[in-house]
Each structure stands twice: as structure tokens, then as C-alpha cells.
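Researcher: We plan to redesign the surface later, but first we want a full-length starting point. C-alpha cells attached.
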């Protein structure tokens, strides 16, 4: 072994750990900045200051401002999708019950999220960042569509297009939280009220009268 090679190899895990920790702090700082200022006003220099790193070092982890905030948004959306999927995949409950609980949980978490939720759900974004949001919406729609398909197969739900109604459910609860978020903070009683109303609407969308596929007027 070349002299110094062993020392370099022994250092590499420590270097990797420091880099991972710096990346974590940067993403957490980006999340904080967006929650307070929104995407449009968020500045990399402010993120660097909060993360206690040099501004230039951020670009060693993320090649651009858009890539930084895209990754931050991706993490936020991934977590929300995991929460929704966990509820939708629960055993021993009807499709409508799972849909209602998933919607109620999402709405409650969104309304608790305040400025971050408003930025993620409502605020205009750079096209590259917005693609992450569109992908997240598609993931949510697919998760609800799967449950609707299960409900149809089990005879719990009438004939309907699961993909269209899954997407419509996502559109309903995302739009439904916009006005409450704009009037934030949202207290617990209001969160419960909004969650119940949106969940009931979404449940009725799949348990009510089914559209006749292929019919015309």
C-alpha cells in the first residue's frame, strides 16, 4: 500500500459523513427559508447562512438554485405521499373509509404546515421545481386510484373510472386547503372542520352515483 493511502481511506468515511451532514443542514435550511419567504423570494445566500456553510459550498451539493429547491420539495412531497399511502394500504377497512382518513390526514398536515404548505401547494414555481410538484400530484392520484380499483373489485364501489376520480380527489383536497392556508394560522377546530368537509366530499365522489362510461347526452 502506498504511504498515506490507508490514512486517506480511513478519512473517507468521515469526509462522507461530514458531507452528508452538510447536505442535510442545507436542505433543512432551504425548507425553513421557503416556509418563511416562499420559493420566489428564497435566496441561496440566506440558506447558506442558516445552514452555517459557505454559499459556494452549496453548489458542490446542488448545481443550481433550482436543483436545491427541487430536492427540498421532493423530500417534502415524498414524506406526504408515504403518509397517505400508509393509510390507503391499511387492511380490513373499506375503500371509502381509507380514502376519508387519508384525505383528513393530508388536510390536517397541510394546514399545520403553514407557510411551507402554502408555498408547496399554491405558489408559482420555476418550471424545474414545479415538475416535482406535478410528479407528486401524479403519485397521490395513482395511490387513490388503486384504492378505488380495490373498492370496485370488492363490490364496495360502483363502476367508475379510478384514474379520473383519483386525480379529482387530489385536485379537490389540494384546492380545498388553499383558502384556509391563505388565512393562516389555522386553529385546531378549523382544521377539523375543513378536514371533515373535504373528506366527505371526496368520499361522496366515489360512493355516490357512478357515471355511465361511454354514455353521451
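Model: Full-length starting sequence:
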Amino acid at each position: 500500500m502506498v504511504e498515506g493511502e490507508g490514512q486517506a481511506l480511513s478519512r473517507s468515511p468521515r469526509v462522507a459523513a461530514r458531507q452528508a451532514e452538510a447536505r442535510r443542514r442545507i436542505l433543512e435550511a432551504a425548507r425553513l427559508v421557503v416556509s418563511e419567504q416562499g420559493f420566489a423570494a428564497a435566496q441561496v445566500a440566506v440558506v447558506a447562512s442558516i445552514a452555517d456553510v459557505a454559499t459556494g459550498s452549496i453548489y458542490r451539493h446542488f448545481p443550481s438554485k433550482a436543483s436545491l429547491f427541487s430536492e427540498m420539495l421532493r423530500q417534502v412531497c415524498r414524506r406526504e405521499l408515504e403518509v397517505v399511502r400508509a393509510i390507503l394500504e391499511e387492511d380490513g377497512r373499506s375503500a371509502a373509509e381509507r380514502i376519508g382518513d387519508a384525505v383528513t390526514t393530508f388536510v390536517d398536515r397541510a394546514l399545520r404546515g403553514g407557510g411551507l404548505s402554502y408555498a408547496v401547494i399554491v405558489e408559482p414555481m420555476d418550471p424545474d421545481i414545479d415538475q416535482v410538484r406535478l410528479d407528486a400530484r401524479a403519485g397521490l392520484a395513482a395511490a387513490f386510484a388503486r384504492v378505488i380499483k380495490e373498492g370496485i373489485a370488492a363490490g364496495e364501489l360502483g363502476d367508475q373510472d379510478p384514474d379520473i376520480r383519483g386525480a379529482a380527489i387530489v385536485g379537490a383536497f389540494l384546492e380545498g386547503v388553499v383558502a384556509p392556508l391563505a388565512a393562516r394560522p389555522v386553529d385546531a377546530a378549523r382544521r377539523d372542520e375543513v378536514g371533515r368537509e373535504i373528506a366527505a366530499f371526496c368520499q361522496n365522489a366515489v360512493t355516490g352515483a357512478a357515471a355511465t362510461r361511454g354514455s353521451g347526452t
